[in-house]
Design brief:
The protein has twelve helices and 41 strands. It is mainly beta. It has two domains: 766 residues, Beta Barrel (Maltoporin, Chain A), CATH 2.40.170; 58 residues. It has a 22-stranded antiparallel β-barrel. It has a five-stranded mixed beta sheet with strand order 3-8-9-6-7. The protein starts with 9 loop residues before the first helix and ends with a strand. It holds the Pfam family TonB_dep_Rec_b-barrel. This is Ferrioxamine receptor. It is found in: Cell outer membrane. Belongs to the TonB-dependent receptor family. It is a multi-pass membrane protein.
């Protein structure tokens, strides 16, 4: 079946196409277009991120945004990097509450949320990873008020009191201490003000959504100001768990933040921030996309499933999915002006606690359940000096230190119906296998713990970075920047695997049994020394035994290998594997920017970037091929010589894979044009970006494969424009074209992908909006209407879907890639709002997100322990409501 776009009709498509033609823009760049030189200079002299907008005034002055993407306050027009800015007004008008919704106004950004609230991946220009494994660093760095948030669980809470969100595209090695190989999302909140003020808002929407927000700011003394803000977001789920009579995919989160601003003089400013947020949600729904041959065994074991019906928003589970996330911490930023120099220090400490428990077979049969309990403590310190000389030379020089500790306790549990399900898959052979292998009756897949794991990671890194700007002429500026990063990781992994079948290699069991029978000794007496002696003394007999043991026609036990999901684990560190990585890198940026005239700027950039090694903190962490090679059928006895085998560390059914993925090295060639005229402006960027060693992380049905792609490249064009034909009317349009390729990826989880287009990267992405402000006489009040449209072109969802086996003409990997080509996604989303803004500070808005209720698959994956079945995550249905807001 070919999935493209769901719920859309031809009429709707025509309507949306018409809306796109009428609405030329993206609100994220309704910003610094059309700013004259004198006006821009005045703004740069007095940038103020803390000002609250008045709704009507913000709409009229959309050309006056200051950004700090280059760590200096500039207008967007004067910033020679590819950056988009989403304003506070856009966030409110479009009902964007967290970073997940930000993609609908930023075409080069894509956000994916998977099996839990904590598993969110940010992707820029087709590059991104980091979800579902706490050991993987994200390729897209997220900073909130200058503080690096290292894991997605600490990034996706609702953000209140935002001044703007800047999305920087491409490697940002010379501006941010924690190097991000694909890009940066920088969230800037409003700082405390010395004028008393604030706002309150309340929202009620479908699914009984209630959102409350409040903030207040003002002076404590002449030199100290404060601000406090808080938010609550609750909503019923929209997915019915039919057999439990419950709903999932709900919202239940809140956060509080307090700030103090201390300005004892004109040259010193201190800003202290403390925040706490909590998420306690039943999330996330994964439905059945394709019911395969194992579905009969689910039903036979007493389970139920909603087959082939992802968008019914109905499911069957044996337990509700729990997500509990606590994120809290504090930061202190100091800015000291020393004449033409400014010294900035940002010190931060954060703690993140995340617990997730889930039915991972996604049926009402109690087969397998998983839990993860994670604790992450992070300390960061950044110090930088920036200059503001009158002469042609200015610079930035900084240092960054990062120290993080990660601990994960996790495990799988076999449910009471697990044995019945797996016995049906085995054709009723489990009792016979237990008898033949000498195992207690009922021991294979007995209810209880299947695995228990403890993983730890200690990561320390430091970097020195900087840029130098040299104004060769009044119009031509040359920039050079550098970053040196040193990164060290020490990690430990241990696991207990309880299933007795997984602890026996079915080839070795036959070899041991045959040797014991020939030598007339008990199998327990057949030690490695005995096996070696027998092989040396009887090579022909040993060869016959090995041949029979590896022949499915002669060894019927081999049919059970597919049920050996969680074999024993080689703990780390050990005498062969030290459990550490040490990386260092020197990256740099070269740029030339030229002011053609007061309205047009051009720039050309060459930049490199780096991301350190990531660690596979999961039960699927396995030794590399250089350390171990398994024998036929996973045999240890027949395995060739390798460091782990020779050291006596090999365990039954050990296979090779990866403990970690090596560093990513990125480079980008980019040219850009920024033009600003009265009532009209646009930005254009053309780029060629490549990442060598891209860290690929793919789910294979029973585990995750972490590996480095040889090289992935993306060539593309980014264009955005703002058109304001009158003070009342504002159009925005932004589009991104991406031509992505795996230049080299022979070792992917689904075979050689070299030359293929990476899945999940749309060729075209479009984001547009139209906003009209109708003043109501001379009252100072207005009616503001806004429509947004977001589009992703039809694209393949996944590179391959394992679990379908091989055919007479195709390998299993070839089948996996062929099956995946049947599943595609196209996105067409319309959002709208209508706001009555009164002169007294009160606003009333009616809004809708996904107004036309377009449904599509966000991603698919091979169903857990259900070969031939496919599961997937759908997007959210239409949501709508009303919001009342009062500013004072």
């Amino acid at each position: 079946m070919n999935f493209t776009s769901f719920g859309a009709t031809n009429v709707r498509t025509l309507l949306m196409t018409g809306a796109a033609a009428a609405a030329f823009s993206v609100p994220s760049i309704a910003s610094a277009q059309g700013v004259g030189t004198d006006e821009a200079e005045a703004q740069i002299e007095t940038p103020d991120d803390g000002d609250t907008f008045t709704g009507i005034e913000e709409s009229r002055s959309a050309n006056e945004i200051i950004v700090t993407a280059t760590k200096r306050a500039r207008t967007l027009q004067d910033t020679p990097v590819s950056v988009s800015v989403t304003t506070a007004e856009t966030l409110e008008r479009a009902e964007i509450r967290d970073l997940i919704d930000l993609q609908t106004v930023t075409p080069s950004l894509r956000v994916s949320q998977l099996q839990s609230s904590a598993n969110t991946t940010f992707i820029i220009r087709g590059f991104g990873n980091g979800a579902n494994n706490v050991g993987i660093e994200p390729s897209v760095g997220v900073f909130i008020d200058g503080v690096f948030r290292s894991r997605s669980a600490g990034q996706i809470g609702d953000i209140a009191n935002v001044s703007r969100i800047e999305v920087l595209r491409g490697p940002q090695s010379t501006l941010f201490g924690k190097n991000a190989s694909a890009g940066v999302i920088s969230v800037i909140t409003r700082e405390p003000q010395f004028d008393f003020g604030g706002s309150v808002s309340a929202t009620y929407g479908n699914f009984d959504q209630i959102v409350l927000k409040a903030d207040v700011t003002g002076p404590i003394t002449d030199t100290i100001a404060f601000s406090i803000d808080g938010n609550l977001n609750k909503r019923d789920g929209y997915v019915d768990v039919v057999n439990l009579g419950e709903k999932i995919n709900e919202r239940d989160r809140y956060g509080v933040r307090g700030q103090l601003l201390f300005e004892p003089s004109d040259t010193l400013k201190l800003r202290a921030i403390g925040d706490y947020s909590k998420i306690d949600e039943l999330c996330c729904f994964a439905g059945n996309v394709l019911a395969g041959p194992t579905t009969a065994a689910i039903i036979g074991a007493g389970g139920q499933i909603q087959p082939n019906d992802l968008f019914s928003d109905r499911t069957f589970l044996n337990v509700l999915p729990e997500n509990e996330i606590e994120s809290y911490g504090g930061s202190l930023q100091g800015d000291l002006e020393l004449g033409a120099l400014t010294l900035t220090s940002i010190t931060a400490y954060r703690e993140l606690r995340s617990f997730n428990a889930q039915d991972v077979d996604f049926t009402s049969a109690n087969i397998v359940n998983e839990f993860r309990d994670q604790a992450i403590d992070t300390f960061t310190q950044e110090v930088r000096v920036t200059s503001d000389f009158d002469g042609p030379l200015n610079f930035l020089l900084g240092g960054f230190y990062f120290d993080e500790s990660v601990v994960q306790n996790s495990g799988l549990d076999t449910g009471p119906q697990g044995r019945a399900f797996f016995n049906l898959l085995a054709g009723g052979a489990l009792p016979f296998a237990e008898a033949g292998l000498g195992l207690p009756a009922g021991s294979i897949f007995a209810p209880g713990p299947l695995t228990r794991e403890l993983f730890t990671l200690d990561n320390t890194s430091y970097s020195i970075f900087g840029t130098v700007d040299f104004e060769l002429t009044d119009r031509l500026t040359l920039t050079a920047g550098f970053n040196y990063t040193d990164d060290s990781k020490d990690f430990t992994l241990s696991q207990q695997s309880s299933d007795p079948l997984a602890n026996i290699n079915l080839v070795d069991a036959v070899i041991v049994g045959q040797i014991a029978q020939i030598l007339q000794i008990p199998p327990s007496a057949v030690t490695p020394a005995v096996i070696g002696g027998f092989q040396q003394a009887n090579p022909a007999a040993f060869g016959q035994i090995a041949a029979a043991a590896t022949n499915p026609a002669l060894n019927p036990l081999l049919g059970l290998q597919a049920l050996q999901f969680q074999p024993p684990f080689v703990d780390l560190p050990n005498s062969v594997e030290p459990g550490e990585t040490n990386d260092d890198d020197f990256s740099y940026t070269l740029r030339a920017s030229y002011e053609v005239n007061n309205n047009v700027n051009v720039y050309a950039t060459y930049a490199t970037g780096f991301k350190a090694s990531s660690v596979n903190l999961s039960r699927d962490s396995r030794p590399s091929n250089a350390d171990f090679i398994a024998g036929p059928g996973g045999s240890t006895i027949l395995a060739p010589s390798s460091p782990i085998r020779d050291a006596g560390l090999a365990v039954p059914n050990l296979s090779s894979g990866s403990r970690f993925a090596g560093p990513e090295d990125s480079e980008v060639y980019e040219v850009g044009l920024k033009a600003s005229f009265p009532g009209f402006g646009f930005n254009l960027a053309i780029f060629d970006q490549t990442i060598e060693g891209f860290q690929s992380f793919a789910f294979t049905g029973t585990g995750f494969a972490l590996t480095n792609a040889g090289e992935q490249s993306t060539r593309g064009v980014e264009f955005d424009t703002t058109i304001s034909p009158s003070d009342a009317l504002l159009f925005t349009f932004a589009t991104t074209y991406l031509d992505a390729t795996f230049d080299s990826f022979p070792g992917s989880a689904v075979g050689d992908l070299t030359g293929e287009t990476p899945a999940g990267i749309p060729e075209w992405t479009i984001s547009t909006s139209a906003q009209y402000t109708q003043e109501l006489g001379n009252s100072g009040s207005a009616l503001i209407g806004r429509v947004d449209y977001y589009h992703e072109s039809n694209t393949q969802i996944l590179d391959g879907v394992p679990g379908f086996g091989a055919t007479a003409t195709e390998t299993a990997n070839e089948v996996a890639r062929r099956i995946a080509r049947n599943y595609r996604r196209e996105v067409n989303q319309v959002n709208a709002s209508l706001t009555l803004a009164l002169d007294n500070g009160f606003e009333l808005s009616a809004w809708a997100r996904n107004l036309l209720d377009e449904r599509y698959i966000t991603t698919i994956f091979p169903s857990v322990a259900q070969a031939g079945s496919i599961s997937g995550y759908p997007n959210a249905p239409r949501t709508y409501g009303v919001t009342g807001r009062f500013r004072f």
